[in-house]
Every structure is written in C-alpha cells, then in structure tokens.
C-alpha cells in the first residue's frame, strides 16, 4: 500500500500545472485592460469579422473590435462573479452546516430540509427566476450564485461536522468546560476544511459555467461590458462569416473550467484520508 500523497512532497505536475494555468488566468483577469493590444470598445467598420492577422491575432467581431482584447477583459466579470459568489456561498453554507450538525436535531431538520428543497431545482432555472426579478449585472449574479451554491457547502459542512463532533477530543473539550464558540472555531472548523476546499474548487467551476450560460442567454453580464459567455452568445450568429469568433471564447472557457476541475480532483486525492 502506497503512502498518501502530500502537497509538499516533490513536484506534483497534476496539481501545479493547472494551478499555474489558473494563476495566469487570474492574473489576466486583474491586468487584462493593460495587456489588451487594442481598445476593446473601439468600433472599426472597415475591419468587421476579419480572420486572424498580424494586427488582430484572433480576428475581429461584428463591430470590428479586436477579439483578443475583448477576451482579455471579458474574463474579469466572470472570475469576479465566480469567486465572489463562491466565497459568499462558502461563508453562508459552512455556517448553516455547522449549526445543523452541532446545535441539535431541530436546527438540523430545518436547515437540511431547506437545503434538500433548494437542491431539487436545477441551478440554471433558479438563476433565471432570480435575474428575472432583479436588474442584470455582476452584483445580481454574485448574490444569485452565492445563494444557489450555499446548499452544496451546507451539506458538505453538515456531514463533516457530524463526523467531527463524535470524536473523543470534542468530548474532552466539552468536559473541560469549553464554550460552544471555542469548540466550533478550534475543534470543528479546522477539521472540516479539507472537503470544503475541494467543494470550493468545484463550485468555482460550476459558477463560471452558470454565469457564462446566463450571459449566453442575454440575462447575465450586459453589454458593453464583455464576458466570455456573452461573446459566445453573440458570436453564434456569425458562425458562417467567422467561425473562429465562436471558437476562441469557447476554448478559453473550456480551458479555465478544465484547469479548476483538475485542481479540485487532485486536491481531493491529496486531502482524502482514505486515499491509498
């Protein structure tokens, strides 16, 4: 039986390669406006739907705008919504999950049945319902994603909390008179972080796809601010004139989600105590 892999043991290409790719993508999200070779909002009617060239490596869109420049800044709202929504979902979900698993049966019943009801609906349908009542934009999408994925964190935190509170060291802390707040912060929370980290990576990837899907349908990020999903949605109308217009944002989206999923899969292997 082989030993469980550890983060600090040698170079783990399965983790560090997608992690480096994700770091580069996040860097582009932060510094995209300064990396863009052209003004992403500049309209040029003499360069409409051009193929790749020295001036425009990825071609131009229906208004003659540089596709590369728009992709470089289009990642920012997507990543902001995905990471912000995931952070919101993690805070709310972990709090609910710990309350359900630590406080008592009444709170557990209320929280977990509410979670089950929310999980019974497809996220895209709930998201469409929410954005239908509030103005579209990054703020609305961030809160929507945070609410939609709170149940996922709540279930993971609840399951892990139940396992931890049955351990002897928790009983020892209780017998020594430790307050519930101390037990949760010092005993429970540090011991349930591993599955939560994996859940966070999965949620970021799902949030990116959800935001892109909403923007593709025209109810997410609104023009003139570009996002990858929005660009794909617009580009589908010009497949015959410039098929690469659709290909580039689709490729960027696929690579980003793949990198995050690979990180999540590797972290699950590393952090899972049953890995052999």
Following the backbone from N to C, one meets helices and strands in this order, namely HHHHHHHHHH
Please state the CA-atom Rg, rounded to the nearest Å. 22 Å
- Sum up the overall morphology in one term: elongated
Q: Write the CATH homologous superfamily.
A: MetI-like
- Calculate the mean pLDDT score and round it: 87
> Could you list the spans in which at least 5 consecutive residues all have pLDDT below 50?
1-8
Domain tally: 1
How would a crystallographer describe the biggest sheet?
none
Q: What's the CATH architecture name?
A: Orthogonal Bundle
Q: Specify the structural class.
A: mainly alpha
Beta-strand residue percentage = under 5%
What does the model show?
With 276 residues, the chain is mostly helical. The chain has one domain (13-42, 50-271): MetI-like fold, CATH 1.10.3720.10. 69% of the residues lie in helices and 0% in strands. It contains ten helices and no strands. Helix 2 (67-102) packs across helix 8 (193-216). It is elongated, with a radius of gyration of 22 Å. The model is unreliable at 1-8 (pLDDT under 50).
List keywords for this structure.
mainly alpha
In brief:
With 276 residues, the chain is mostly helical.
Write the layout of secondary structure elements.
Elements: H1 13-35, H2 67-102, H3 105-119, H4 123-133, H5 138-165, H6 168-175, H7 180-188, H8 193-216, H9 228-235, H10 244-271
């Amino acid at each position: 039986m082989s030993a469980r892999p550890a983060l600090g043991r040698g170079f783990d290409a399965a983790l560090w390669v997608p992690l480096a790719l994700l770091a580069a993508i996040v860097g582009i999200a932060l510094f995209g406006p300064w990396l863009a070779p052209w003004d992403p909002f500049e309209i040029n009617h003499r360069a409409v739907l051009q193929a790749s060239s020295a001036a425009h490596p990825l071609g131009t869109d229906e208004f003659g705008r540089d596709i590369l420049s728009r992709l470089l800044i289009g990642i920012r709202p997507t990543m902001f919504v995905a990471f912000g929504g995931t952070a919101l979902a993690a805070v709310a979900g972990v709090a609910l999950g710990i309350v359900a698993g630590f406080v008592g049966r009444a709170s557990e019943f209320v929280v977990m049945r509410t979670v089950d009801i929310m999980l019974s609906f497809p996220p895209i349908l709930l998201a469409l319902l929410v954005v239908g009542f509030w103005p579209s934009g990054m703020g609305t999408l961030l809160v929507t994603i945070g609410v939609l994925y709170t149940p996922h964190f709540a279930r993971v935190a609840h399951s892990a909390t139940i396992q931890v509170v049955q351990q002897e060291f928790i009983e020892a802390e209780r017998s020594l008179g430790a307050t519930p707040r101390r037990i949760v912060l010092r005993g429970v929370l540090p011991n349930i972080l591993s599955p939560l980290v994996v859940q966070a990576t999965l949620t970021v990837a799902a949030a990116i796809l959800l935001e892109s899907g909403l923007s593709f349908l025209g109810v997410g990020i609104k023009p003139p601010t570009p996002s990858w999903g929005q660009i794909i949605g617009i580009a589908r109308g010009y497949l015959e004139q410039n098929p690469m217009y659709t290909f580039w944002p689709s490729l960027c989206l696929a690579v980003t989600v793949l990198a995050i999923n690979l990180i999540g899969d590797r972290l699950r292997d590393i952090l899972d105590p049953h890995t052999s």
